[in-house]
Amino acid sequence: MKYLVVYFFIICNILIACGPSIEEKTAMEKCRQDEITIEEAIRANLKSTFDAPFPKKNFSLTKILGDNLQIYGSCYPLSFKVLSTRKSNLIINNETGDTLFMGTVCRYRGLYYFNEKINDTTFRIFALKITDSLIYGLQNYFQYSQIDSAIERGDFPKLIRYTDKNTIRLHPDKKELKMLFTSIIDNTKPFEIIRTNTISPTNTIENITTTIESDDFEILSKVYPNPAIDILNVDLRQKNVLTPYYLCDLNGKILSQGQFQEITNKIDVSGLSNGIYTLTIVTEEQQKETVKIIKSK
Hints:
The chain has 297 residues and is α+β, with helices and mostly antiparallel strands.
């Protein structure tokens, strides 16, 4: 079965009222067919491919989106099932049953990089920015064409392996791709996420962060000693003006919070009861990292 990559439909001007009625469904089907034609035309003219996927391990989309994702598409909600394993992610259209994406998703400095595998040595990559209520950059084929344009303008020469008249071969350098996709995503309109399981308390960490594995850390360098008795040392990879932090219990309740200003910082944990806690830090770009802390005598 040939899997299609994530492609969310462009807003259809034919649809006026939120329904959808039989007439609207007919119009939407025509709109969908038109967009498939547009997608095929764009695909036929794409030049850029990567020689490897994004160089980070697979991230579980269900950690941030849940098992079901609903967004406002045209004038009514679109619904998708999200399935995640250690090595891959799967996105399925709940209405049609079509598999829209199957592959790895990597998280790096506030963006999520989707890897479309063409064959063992050829990939396409696009990126999303996801907040609590919005998704930016859903138009992946628009992103692919924008990559072609940016490379042909000479904007990101460090990404280029080689080019010719019909081919642009790229290497997925993390820092360069961060700059490339940020410039693309900043010019896209976000889609609204419909939250079906919202958390009402405002003083819980679920409203602030998603936990990631320690080898995914891009901000934290070291947290020690762990277990901690009185003082917890937190080293950052680089000095920032202000880096907010939140120390929480396992229920997500924020017990203390503050701001780091140096490479090496200290938190007084002497007043905590023995047990397991979480420390979350947040950057200006809203990138968040969480590590578990053990408090002992």
